[in-house]
Amino acid sequence: MENGLAACCNLIPGLTSIYTWKGKVQKDAEVLMMIKTDDRQYQKLEQTIKELHPYEVPEVIALDIKRGSKDYLKWIQEVVSL
Length: 82
Fold this sequence. Notes:
Layout: E1 8-21, E2 24-36, H1 42-52, H2 70-79
Antiparallel strand pairs: 1-2
């Protein structure tokens, strides 16, 4: 947040992830983080996550916004620094 890469982050605890890693099925408790940013900051944000996350391959997925509150989307643009 302090580096201007995101306008808002939501932490959603209590998730269980089941996945295959290096040929073995794994089951782990995880926290989902939803980060609101824009295209200008995506690459920097992804790189920062990869540098800070303990996983070798953290889940980083970008979702396009099809619709949303114009005021909220404008706020994201204003808050996320160039």
